[in-house]
Amino acid sequence: MVKRKRFQAAAALGAALLLAVSACSQGSTTKQPEAGSSQSSGPAHIKIAYQQWGPGVVMKNFLTGVKSEYEAAHPGSQVEIVPVVASENDYYTKIQLMMRSPNTAPDIVYEDTFLINSDITAGYLRPLDDYIKNWDQWSQFEDTAKGAARGQDGKTYGIPDGTDTRALWYNKQIFQKAGLPADWHPKTWDDVLSAARTIKQKVPGVIPFNMYSGKPMGEASAMQGFEMLLYGTKDTLYNYDQKKWVVGSQGFKDSLNFVKTVFSEGLAPSPKDALSPNMGSKVGTELLPQQKLAIDLDGSWIYGNWLKSGAKPWPQWSTVLGQTAMPTQDGGGKGKVSLSGGWTWAIPAKSKNPDAAWDFIKTLQTQKNAAKYATDGAQIAVRKDVAADAAYKSSSASTQFFTDLVSVTVYRPALPEYPKVSNEIITAMESVMTGQSSPDDAAKNYDQAVEGIVGGKDKTTTQSTGQ
Amino acid sequence: MTTTVAPTAAATPSTGKRPRAAKLVRMLPLSPAIGLMLVFLAGPIIYCVYAAFTNMALTGTGAANVKFVGLENFRKAFSSSAFTNSIWLTLVFTLISAIIGQNTLGLGLSLLMRRSTKVVRNFVGTAVIGAWVLPEVVAAYLLSAFFNDDGTLNVMLHAVGLPGQDWLYGAPIIAVSLANIWRGTAFSMLVYSAALSEIPKEIEESAEMDGAGGWRRLAFVTLPMITRAIMTNLMLITLQTLSVFGLIYAMTRGGPGTKSQTLPLYMYEQAFSFSQIGYGTAIALVMLAIGAVFSLIYLRGLNSEAA
């Protein structure tokens, strides 16, 4: 029996640990291989990894096009496209695991800007400065976009391919049924709530309001849900003047209270539906096109679903849906709020063919290809020449609106700790939306967790100035 | 005569040594296996214990510079309400699904099957073992359909006029516990069937002759005779249940909120969703400690029985 017990214990431990260990071949991740050391890049096999979003194939089609262009220009070279089909957080975990070992590291990886600093600190990415030095296209990129891919060491680790802004999408037909104005401009949070309440009352069977919330939607909940609220209060996440994370702020509690209000009053999808990992594609491909959702706090790219090449073609969207900016809490400040993120193409430190990878990124980022992706992928352009392109500007009914929001937009604190802080935000949201905690308790837990993440009380502040 | 005695006498002093050497030689073929065990079993365990005391992570500072942080991970765990919540849920889950559910149901079924006809025995046996043989994810999928808002369970409850509820959302820890009972009862049933078949018929018959009724025979004759099997069964299913992951993950992902987040799910979330490997392995060690405490309790039960 004793033996059996030991065996059980050992087996249980072993099983738990094998998981952990397989993720932990440390090696020399701190050493940065030199970039651009060898000049000639002969025929090479390049692996490019990106996130496959639900049923959408825009990126896949785009990459397949660039692949044939590249292979034609570089005879003998081979490009392997590796779609990583995963939900938000799972994608980051999967590519981090891939980048840990030279055996599995892709040569090019699609990195969300919110994670790039964390992965730079982890030593997963290769600085691109030596390549960029000789690249005439870099001057075409907007400065804010360049900043998004810069590490704390001042080096650039990724080439941005687009950005985004966020606002309220609303269904004009449902608004009409509810007796609300078709040209809607809410000035405060209360305006949004009262419109949602009217819809709940007058148009039964329709979900009045959607905001992403909780762990399954990962970063979409934190940024596009919570921070769209928080940055409309007087508070922020990080104080740049004091270089400290903000805790104990009233804005944080107010934002959680907003989450509580929409879920407890039934103004949002039921928490059960909202916690489905597929909520993102469900909103884009079902709820909005089937006119079952009246107001959606969402990104500029969502119409990509409804293009002819999208997951759910819906040509009428441009007349049915309107866009309006998310107001600040009480109409103060700039009156509206938006957050921006975006993705970059980066080369992992353990890539075996960095030179060829760079050549491929250059092909991805020609003016022609960048314009094609900005249009098909429903992105806000980060290249000046693309942004000025008439075809891009008129590519969708909402392009101008979302491009204009760039003037008020906020970027997340792009620090290595941010992903962990973001996890604490979505944990707090989920506990509030399911009624497990009060907003005050959830905020208190968040404060404690943030102190733990950033290393003690002296690294936090209760003052939000400096944003 | 002398020739035969002499070698024996000469050999006597070395008896302490030679068989040991011989034993070592005989062990030699085992060495590759032992080596493999050391590398693939002991290695990871030692590595895990080491990782639990570091800030190892999948991204950020903990990925590039792994630092020794002492007891920090454990301090963090025990001051976190999410962690204490998951310990509590793990204990509830183990108590309901293993100690109460699988154990008593398995015992009850094996007692009933002893007295039933062969047809019934085969039928029940196949049904129960079928649930056990199904792959975990398939079972979880079936059970999700069963406990769903418009699933079979609610349809049945409505049919007899009882109010249903959304089990996976409203009472997730109960739903996954019931699921684990459904899946794991077969194991206990097999253990008890084997133990019961060992009891000599005469003992029970003589108890019956002495006038002991069904319940008294069970309490004073049958159960005491299978105490060892009960303890063994309890220990094995407790350890199995403590580490159940796939079933819960596939049914509820530990949610909604953290309402069904047992320790293995909490560990997975922290280590792989939130990238904190060091913290995750520290939780694995805590899990191991809980398993060890349970094992010790059962082992005491077994030993006092043997004495």
Descriptive report:
The complex is a heterodimer of chains A (467) and B (307). By secondary structure, chain A is of the alpha/beta class. Chain A has two domains: 45-164 and 341-410, D-Maltodextrin-Binding Protein, domain 2; 166-339 and 413-461, Periplasmic binding protein-like II (D-Maltodextrin-Binding Protein, domain 2, 3-Layer(aba) Sandwich), CATH 3.40.190. Chain A is built from 20 helices and 15 strands. Chain A has helices at residues 2-22, 58-73, 88-100, 113-121, 129-133, 143-148, 172-177, 189-202, 219-230, 250-264, 271-274, 279-287, 317-320, 354-364, 367-376, 384-387, 390-393, 399-404, 418-433, 439-454; strands at 45-52, 78-85, 108-112, 159-162, 166-171, 207-210, 238-239, 244-246, 293-299, 321-324, 326-327, 336-340, 343-346, 409-411, 460-461. A five-stranded mixed β-sheet of chain A has the order 2-1-3-13-4. In chain A, helix 9 packs across helix 10 (250-264), helix 10 packs across helix 19 (418-433) and helix 10 packs across helix 20 (439-454). The radius of gyration of chain A is 23 Å and the shape is globular. The relative contact order of chain A is 0.17. Chain B has one domain: MetI-like (MetI-like fold, Orthogonal Bundle), CATH 1.10.3720.10. Helix content of chain B is 78%, strand content 0%. Chain B has helices spanning 2-11, 18-27, 31-51, 61-64, 72-78, 81-115, 118-133, 136-147, 152-159, 167-170, 172-197, 201-209, 214-225, 227-242, 246-252, 263-273, 277-306. The chains are: A alpha/beta (467), B mainly alpha (307).
